[in-house]
Design brief:
78% helix; mainly alpha; two-stranded antiparallel sheet
């Protein structure tokens, strides 16, 4: 369960702050380490959410298993679909390689796993926690919540300028928001998101 601790106006301001921080972190990643910029934005996002929203992290073993299975399935699907994408989308390999090069900025992807998980936690708290709570508080229909959450989740990626990350944000944002709606909390999308990121970006890169 997710409940606001403050007025909706203050909560929207907190969400706006987190959104700007996450967007700026990707927009400037060419000038500074992507790990430094996104981790800093992640801390801002976590603080903004926890200061304004009560996030319930309790869930059932069944939902945890679903989160783990979903993360593994996403990673497998990514590797299966990537060669098809290479055949269909000119320049895809070049852009993906450029993204992986950014991840090799010090301290490197393996040493930076804690920072990666911090950013994952921040994104789930901000977009599947705070944002969804605000939209539901407004009485927005379930389908509209899904569309709005997906659209706002792509904003930082648009600021970052990567077509690949924008496409991933749309696809992954749809799945993770849907998981949030089905399970009633952020634990399932958090597990799925974290597993997929660690596998695809660190353990078994494309």
């Amino acid at each position: 369960m997710t409940m606001l601790r403050v007025s909706p106006r203050v909560a929207w301001l907190a969400f706006g702050l987190a959104l700007v921080a996450l967007s700026a972190s990707l927009a400037i990643r060419g000038e500074v380490s992507v790990w430094a910029s996104t981790a800093t934005a992640g801390v801002i996002g976590i603080a903004a959410t926890l200061a304004t929203t009560r996030i319930e992290l309790r869930t059932s073993p069944r939902w945890i298993a679903i989160g783990v299975a979903s993360g593994l399935a996403m990673a497998i699907a990514t590797h299966v679909l990537y060669p098809i994408g290479l055949a269909l989308v000119p320049g895809l390999e070049r852009e993906v390689l450029a993204l992986y090069d950014e991840l090799h900025a010090p301290p490197g992807p393996r040493a930076a796993v804690p920072l990666l998980l911090l950013v994952v936690l921040a994104e789930e708290l901000v977009f599947r926690g705070l944002l969804v709570a605000l939209l539901e508080r407004w009485g927005v229909r379930r389908s509209a919540v899904l569309v709005a959450a997906i659209a706002l989740y792509t904003v930082p990626q648009i600021a970052g300028g990567s077509v690949v990350l924008i496409a991933l944000a749309i696809a992954c944002g749809a799945l993770w928001t849907w998981q949030r709606q089905l399970s009633g909390g952020i634990v399932v999308p958090l597990i799925t998101h974290a597993l997929w990121d660690v596998i695809v970006f660190v353990l078994v890169p494309l």
